[in-house]
Structure formats: structure tokens, C-alpha cells
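Continuing the series of single-chain predictions for the mutant panel. This is the parent chain; the variants come on the following pages.
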Amino acid sequence: MQLTQTKDTLVNQQKADNKKNIAGALALATCALLGTDVNATEQDWQFDSAFLFYGEIERVMAAEAMVNAKKEFADEQVLNVRLTLDTLTGASANGAVAQPYVQTFTRPSGKGQYQINANDTPLDNTFHDTRVQLNAQWTQPLAPNYTASAGVHLSKEYDYLSLGINGNLAIDFNQKNTTLSLGLSHFQDTFTPEGGLPKPYAAMLIGDSESPTWDQSFANTRIGDSETKTTTDFLIGLTQVINRRMLMQLNYSHSVVDGYLTDPFKVLSLVDEQGLSQAQLYENRPDQRTKQSVYWQSKYHFDNSIMDLSYRYMWDDWNIKSHTVDTRYRFLFSDNSYLEPHVRYYQQSAAEFYQPFLNQNQALPEFASADYRIGEMNAYTLGLKYGLRLSDGNDFAVRVEYYSQNPTDAGFSAPGALANQDLYPSIDALILQFSYSF
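Parent structure:
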């Protein structure tokens, strides 16, 4: 899994220098938003580094290290290279519902089984992955008021390979107070899950894994070893300097995803009229998804503080709609340090094919998934960041945040024993990050 798309599960890092010159700060903020640069002289390499820990209570834990190198050349060309390494371990919900008795599940590889205690949410405690990601971006002016950038992306996990390219064109006008940005990216991903790809709605094989017929029986629940998907994103954005203190940005993005979008590690419980599980069926999702979003952000520089407020609305053809409100308020101190509280709220509706379980008395739907990540939910983040510019000009910062994700009932009736189970358990997590720029 990608840390970045669970990674709605982690928050973005924001950086802003403590500048006494307000106009200069706004100019730098504009360039940071657009990926362009205002310096015309060659500079030494600049490095940003960060280490992040993300831990859910009794579930997934993640550790991520990042180093970003930036080189500015005399002709206003800029090279950015970023290396990211992260690892995930712990227990991940497999999609099945809790039951009033001990449940047995087969591991995704087909090698071995694990048991879940009565009334506990089924979690696969063998979840583990390591990802290495490399991004490179080249930016340069094409003509007066025109700046272009192009980049490449490589990400490799144990069972996942992602390759991508992107390009961006920024056009300045209105005396450089307004910038229009056009961006396009394309990704090709290959998924090779351990144990292969399960057949949609095939029942999870349970029994004696040492049996001589086990391997063939398990293979009969598979459709292959690997699958691919492509993602094409288009973005158009407008950034406007309102006055010497205020900067505003508005973006629209359109994303089309084609290919294998099912999660091969997720199942749905098939229950009877008493709410008791009769089998675990592998999920099935559509092979196409179109997402759209609008994003608004505003930064305002007071005398001794900076306010950053943003709102994002996303909708797709899976019938998921989400609202995100994010605000940060940076208090600037005279010793070149700052304190930045952070509040984020997220609300999401369920996909049209989401359901927490399947009823054996009803025909199987075309698509179904019990993955809480595409279910109805709300989440909030509360955090605090402290940053300091050191005597040698380098910057240090530490960020601590609490994240709470709360799945909710989208209107499903729980029969029999399920009425006494927690079908929508909350997830609480702690985020700790250290960053150093030099």
C-alpha cells in the first residue's frame, strides 16, 4: 500500500519562512506554490530532511524518512531530487465482520492461517511493506512570464511498482501578480500480490493447509499473478496576489484511473439471517474511476503571524463525496522561532458499492467492498508544530499530531448477532515528525 494514499490517512507538510519583508514572503510563497524560483544566481545545494512516525492504536505503524535536494542555477533553472523510504507493519482490517465466536482466516499467501478472538474486529497481523520512492523535477523559464517543469516518479514496494511522468506550465501576467498553472501527469502501476489475485467473490479457503490438495484448491481461487492500472491527472490552477499581505489559490483537478482497482487482501463476510458468518468472499470493485476536485487556499500575513486556510471538495463516479477543511496559524517570535497549531476536518460519503457484509439470502451485487476507507466516515486532526531557525541559518522543526478516523453507519441493517458487534470501529493515531533543512 502507498503511505501517501492511506497515504487520506497522513497530513501534508507545509513550510514557510519567517520573513519581515511581507512582499518578499508573498513572492516566495507564490513560487513555492507554483514550483518556480525567483533567484537569478546560482546557489549551493539545499537539503530538506524529515523523519515521520505514524502509529495507530493496535493497528498499522509506519516510519518514513525523506531527503530532498534542491539546486538553483544561474539561469533560473532548478533541479529537485527527493528520496523517500518508508516501512509499514502491524495489523490491518481484512474487511470481515466481528463474530461472537473465534474466527479463522487464511493468510493472503495461502501459507498458514490466523485466528481472531470472539467479538474482535478481524485484523491481519502479518501486514508488512517497505517502499522506496524517487522523484526528480526540472524547472526552467521558457520565455518571459512562462515557466515549465517536468518530472519523473519511481516507487517500488514488495508487491507494487509505480512509474510516472509529469509536466507543468506556469504563465505569469497582471504584472506577475497572477499565475495560471496547467499540469498533466501519468502513472503506470503494476501489482503482484503475494498469493496472486483472487477471483471476485471466491470464498476464502479454510482448512488444513498441509493437505496434499491444498495448493491446487487455493490456486482455483486465483485469476493470475499480476495486474496493472493507469492514472492520468490534469490540473488547472490560478494563484493571485491580493495585496502585500494576502495570497490566494484556486485549483481544479480531474483524474481518470483504469485497470485493477480491487484490493486483493480485502474480503466480505457472507452472513445468514442470524448475522452469523457462513464464508469470507473476496471483494470486487469497478475497473474504472473518475475523480474531480476543487481546491481553495488563502494565506494571510499579519504583523506577527501567518494564517493558512484551505478547503477541498472531491467527488467521483463511485458516488464518494468528501469535504476537507484545513487550517494552520503560525505565531512568529522574535528569536526566529514559531509555533503553529493545526486543525483539519474531513468528511466522506460511502461508495455506491460499499457494504459492511453480504447477506446470503440476497443475490450477489455486481460490485461490493467492505473496506472502511471507501465507506462513510469523518476524521479530524489536531496538531502543533514548533520551528526554529538556528544560528548557522539552518532550520529545525518538530510536529506532533493526533488523528482520529470515525467510520459511520451508512444505513445498513445489522441482523441477529451483528447488532451486538462494532461494525464501524474508530481508528486513533499519533503522528510525530522531525525535520531539518540545511
